[in-house]
Description:
The structure is a single chain. This protein is of the alpha/beta class. It is built from six helices and six strands, in the order E-H-E-H-E-H-H-E-H-H-E-E. Helix 2 links the parallel strand 2 and strand 3. The mean pLDDT is 94.
Amino acid sequence: MKTIIYMIRHGESPYNEGNERTRGLTPKGKIDIEKVTKLLIGEGIDVIISSPFTRAILSVEGLAEHLKLDIKVFEDLRERHFASYIIENAELMSSIRESFNDPDYTLPGGESNADCQKRAISVLESLLKEHRGKKIAIGTHGLVMTLMMNHFDPTFGLAFLNQLKKPDIYKMQFEDLELEEVIRMWND
């Protein structure tokens, strides 16, 4: 029995608005998410899941409204926590690169790729079991999405993360817990 996961990376989000948990979408991000909603309305989605971060929830909210579905929020689908202090973009990119070389690497007070992947996969595998044979949309983030996909196929690594767009959509087809196929649906 096939289960379909739609990984929906959030739309463009301003870095100067609020903190990681509460920042929303830019005007461009909101327009792009309307396109995401139109693209996915006819897919027959049964369940909508999201990270607890506002930008991820906003990225599946329109779809949920159109399909008259609730959004189920899972704390363990949040984006990876990088450090206990504010880091500059150059340090962030260096840290991300190092994390793909060493999955246990982390900055002080941060979370490793291995820990982030473990918590997110725990949720994803339970969703695959609970909603077997269904179509599930997940509002997510670039790094945690890459790590979830990497768990099933190691070709989804740093190069994959670096080419992602905001938003982006990947349709993953599973047979039980076995990933069979991945198709990119967003091409804007």
